[in-house]
Amino acid sequence: MQKITDQMGRQFECPKRPLRIISLVPSQTELLVDLGLEEYIVGVTKFCIHPKHLRMSKKVVGGTKKISLAKIEAVKPDIILCNKEENTKEIVEQLEKIYPVHVSDINDLEDALDLITQYGVIFNSSLDATKIVSTIRNEANSFKNFIKDKPAKKVAYLIWKDPYMAAGKQTFIDHMLSLNKYKNVFKGSLRYPEATLETIKELNPDYILLSSEPYPFKREHIDEIKKIMPSTTVELVDGEYFSWYGSRLLDAFIYFKSLHY
After folding, report:
1. Do 158 and 244 have their domain in common?
2. How confident is the model over 145-188, as pLDDT tens digits?
3. How many Cα atoms occupy the beta-carbon half-sphere of 3 within 13 Å?
4. Which domain holds residue 219?
5. What is the three-class DSSP state of 207?
6. Same domain, yes or no: 31 and 89
7. For residue 82, which of 98, 97, 65 has the smallest C-alpha distance?
């Protein structure tokens, strides 16, 4: 057995190399695959959409907020991977009574890279983890040089509609916005505040970014917002690059460059 301390400071024991893994976090599921661990994944959520074929070959044990204990028991996991934000405290407390549970806590890029390194150690995939971390660092440094002379822009980043919800402070999205020299107009609000278009207009953003997830914003929503704020630039963005903190970061900074034309 090996003793693990996760990103919440929780200690637990699990097998030296866990061979039966359940992931309850989509971005972490994708990371496992990129670490060469697909064959060891026995359970995923219905939101684990990358790679596309995974949900057809693995047991779907529920969502990120609601799980089936019977389905989890059926696949007999050696370890279950959770996240502080994605999964509820109740889910973690319920599962840790029976199984080894690792909980990630991601607030910035360094936390994300630390998680990748941790998974490398836990799953005996340190070589692959080191390569992924090194590539992400190189891309992040390249982007830092690219963005340094770009002007800062005031931005509202919307993740939901009816009601509108924005990304505020103490979120990974807010950190990624800051790396893009986007000044978050909701920086004074915690987590994911609700807002009206009138409230957003008063904050006077230069840009409104409509995320592709969790709400699937479309072109029609741009027109709706432009009726209230005709002089504000409104754009659709790929939310996975702003909120997925696993190996999706390999391509995130290349994507971010495309936003700064």
Report:
1. yes
2. 999 999 999 999 999 999 999 999 999 999 999 999 999 999 99
3. 3
4. 153-259
5. strand
6. yes
7. 65
Which residues does 111 contact at the CB level (< 8 Å), separation at least 6?
7, 104, 105, 172, 245
**What pLDDT shows up at residue 114?**
98
- What is the 8-class DSSP label of residue 151? P
Place of tokens 């909120």: 243
Tell me if 14 sits within 8 A of 4, measured CB to CB. Answer: yes
**Phi, psi (degrees; rounded to nearest 5) at 131:** -65, -45
Q: pTM for the full model?
A: 0.96
DSSP-derived letter for residue 162 is T
Return the beta strands (E) in the chain as ranges. Answer: 2-5, 11-14, 21-23, 41-44, 59-60, 79-83, 101-104, 153-160, 164-166, 182-184, 194-195, 207-211, 233-237
CATH number for the domain spanning 205: value is 3.40.50.1980
Residue 76 near residue 19 (C-beta atoms within 8 A): no
Q: Within a domain: residue 60?
A: yes
